[in-house]
Amino acid sequence: MTTSPFLLGPWRTAFQWLTTSLLLGLPFLRIGGESVLRLDLSERSLYCFGQLFRLEELYLLLFACIVLILAFLFLTLVLGRVWCGWACPQTTLVDLAEAFARRIGVKVQNGRMTPKPWQQLLLQLFYLLLALLVGCNLTWYFIEPVAFFNRLWNGQLGVAPLVTIAVTASIIYLDLGWLRRLFCREFCPYGRFQTALLDPGTLALRFHPDEAPRCIRCGACTRVCPTAIDIRRGYQIECINCGRCLDACREVMVKRQQLGIIRYTFGSSGRGWRALMNPRLLLVALALFAGTAGLTLAVAQRAPVSLKVARSAAEIRSLPDGQSAVFYTVYLSNRSRNPLQLTLQATGEAGELQLRGPTRDLPLAAGERRKVDFALLAPTSSSADLQTIEFQLLDAQGAILTRADATLRRPQKGLP
């Protein structure tokens, strides 16, 4: 038996640093000159890993939300509250606060601190700096960090970002100063929701009843528990699956040349990962796979440019050659990271229709939106029936990128 047991604590800390670095660093990363992930409210656009999504593509965002909900259900059914103990920002912030408290000599046990006045002052300053960092980090997902710091330095950040930072920082500061682990025990809705989703195969920390006679009642597992529970009493809703009790038990039992009594298990039946093979989990997994495949396909088949057509308010004009000029406006939006050279054409029941205006060799820079006014020449008819016009947008090689339909009421003879 080794005297150095395998501990999860260093791995959990490394994972928390990784996720924290990702959250802090993601706004600084760029693809094709744009942020990896940023919601630009002024342009009503979402930049997401090299893709540009406009407001009119909101259906994709709703689709993505459904996929995320399914992923949330799936991970909860499989891993239980491992999210709470390993990846939740609340846990990471509190762990960081408690680590700082220990560094300055404060005693921390079961999430409770007993600092001296000078230690309390340092803690409050640390909470405030941490809260401001979180508030700024949230704002960076709406304003590019470089632009954020330039505007902040010049006093031009604006009211909305400042209010966002102030409100977010206030919430985080109050959380770190007064709630901390109490939020996980009493207020976190995820813990209650996870209880309803508890599955026979869900991963959980267990104190094995069959091995209870080996327990020496040292209390190490209860002293390190951040939510102040006793895992020896069985599953409890307050457990966040962080694994601290598991490490504490291993460190004690290894001195007795024995294995720890507390461990992660899939369910309580002793079937291991096979306990995951149940109808509810398989159904959620199937729905998640189908949703992910559908979302991937929808994003992959997006046209690189969007086309919207609207009738202009200008009156129809009769031309000497017997045709009429009907005025339209198109709105173009380049969703790609490459400049485009576009040509607009229209097709009716009788074939291609003539367009007059800037409809050929239209330059459109990456991410640019453009409005184009033009006239469509339509033959004058003695009847007032309708026809459907298909507008097509072609690239420089003549390939059709996207289409849009419009209804045209044929101009009648005798119109001015």
How do the helices and strands follow one another from N- to C-terminus?
A: HEEEEEHHHEEHHHHHEHHEHEEEEEEEEE
Q: What fraction of residues sit in β-strands?
A: 15-25%
The coarse silhouette is elongated
Number of strands: 18
- How would you state the average pLDDT, rounded? 89
Terminal residue distance: 100 Å
Radius of gyration based on Cα positions: 31 Å
| Tally of separate helices | 12
Low confidence ranges:
none
What about the largest sheet? 9 strands, antiparallel
- Overall number of domains: 2
Q: Would you tell me the structural class of the helices and strands?
A: alpha+beta
| Helix fraction bin | 25-40%
Structure description:
With 416 residues, the protein is an alpha+beta fold. The protein has two domains: 1-302, no CATH class; 305-409, Immunoglobulins (Immunoglobulin-like). 40% of the residues lie in helices and 24% in strands. The strands form five sheets. Strands 10, 11, 12, 13, 14, 15, 16, 17 and 18 form a nine-stranded antiparallel sheet that branches. Strands 3-4-5 form a three-stranded antiparallel sheet, with no helix packed on it. Strand 17 and strand 18 form a beta hairpin. The mean pLDDT is 89.
